[in-house]
Amino acid sequence: MAPFITYQMGQLKSMFVKFSQSIGSRVDIVPMTWSREMSRLHDACPPSSEYHVRHEIETEFSLFHSSTLLSTKNSIFSNSTNTTTNNSTSNNNNTPTTTSITPEVSVSPSLSASHISSSPSSSSSSSTSTATATITPSGRYTSSSSPSLSPSSSSSPSSSASRVAIEDIFETFDMTPIASASIGQVHTATLKSPVTGEVVPVVVKVQHHDIARIMWSDVIIAGRLIQIASFFDSRWEVLGTALRGWKKTMQDELDFRVEARNLLQVGNSLRATSLDAEVPEPIEGLISRTVLVMTRLEGFKVTDKLALNILSVDRRALVCRIAHCCAKQLLVDGLFNADPHAGNLMFMSSRRHPGSCCPGLLDFGMTVRLEDNRRQAYCRLLIAIYEGDSDAATAALKEVGYSTNQSSRVPGRDAEAFEFLFRDATPRKQAMKETSSFFDLRKNQKNNDIKDGTREKAGRNIENVPEDLLFLIRVVGLLRGLTADLEVSCPILHILSLHARVGLYKTCN
Hints:
Layout: H1 2-12, H2 14-25, H3 32-38, H4 50-61, H5 66-78, E1 105-106, E2 115-118, E3 131-135, E4 141-142, H6 166-169, E5 172-173, E6 179-180, E7 184-192, E8 199-207, H7 211-232, H8 237-253, H9 256-271, E9 282-287, E10 291-295, E11 300-301, H10 305-310, H11 315-333, E12 335-337, E13 345-349, E14 357-361, E15 367-369, H12 372-387, H13 390-400, E16 403-404, H14 412-421, H15 428-452, E17 462-464, H16 467-485, H17 492-508
Antiparallel strand pairs: 1-2, 2-3, 3-4, 5-7, 6-7, 7-8, 8-10, 9-10, 11-13, 12-15, 13-14, 16-17
């Protein structure tokens, strides 16, 4: 049954793949058969056709003049800081990942039809031209006559801009993707310097065909179903909150230019600290809404146990480094990856400390930004939980906006729930025992309430939960699943509390 359901989820695409990826990452609470099968959708979703890949790249980059492409290539090889590569690996293969190159196109953030003005990055006004096109709800460029794949087509985006082919941009390009996930797929390629002849390996992330329209359609349908269910039972409203939060991040995730900015910000932040981790850098000037080119990170998928064993990698240290990176993003920077599943994580040779390994953090499309007051509130919550201060934790939960129908009667139960959610991570068997013990506690509390006559008619239900809190819980849950999969322990709560203190210190200074 698990292989059949996984296959169907992959065919349905969109939010069905997102859901399956989450299930596949929770080895600590999901039966092994199901988690193993659904984890395949981390990087092995059905890919788009070769025709679509070629058409998407050539359409996006035809907004450049050939002279702009030449100057962009020159800048790539002259700036050594922009040669960090994003590597996406699959299963047990040492496969490279994609670096994004984005055209400087100004596009309305709305997915409804809007106009784009494109001009090459030339300082000379005589060499600058403007191209106008339309974006459909699926995010595709259209015009009165569909552009041909031929470089000599008369229906190019601009009369002065020549149609470029993949061969004009890349020295080599592998049409077989090394990874395919919910939003897009990743191809390996190389760029050659027109001056020195140096060849640099890169990866190219291409958005799936029609995926924007499919995802928006699924969100609308899901929203209506939740509205109907909530009319009959208010407990469904928490799913509406989750859907609204995901809808906001999805809009950014469908725009690869947003991901490029996130990669730069996170990468710069990590390099300014002692945390040893690699993040791909987008190549300035070659980034578009649906195509992203990045330099390649060489390494292995973080759950590749064969590679971990052969290379004698300290799994616990690796997971703890990943947890430190996530905690810093969340509690110090206020910008964090809300989707750190195994398909977005790898391990590689450290450049800072030769002879050791470090994590590679991939795919920052699904990210959440916290306002400073929200970030501080979560810092206070995690410190209170770590110190075992139930009163302070209850006050912090009220500050972040979380409440249940039992919060006023037995506020300590809210703190108990979050102590369980943010507890230190353990191997799978122990994690299953901890989960079972917590639900036994809840069952005993329910029986006591019934016996005392204080039990609410509808039981214990969540009344208010902020969208960003759901993403925080998701991140910690995925880290817990990774820890269980690698059969190690990780002091997640201790790590979170350390960065929470740094985050508050940063605010005070």
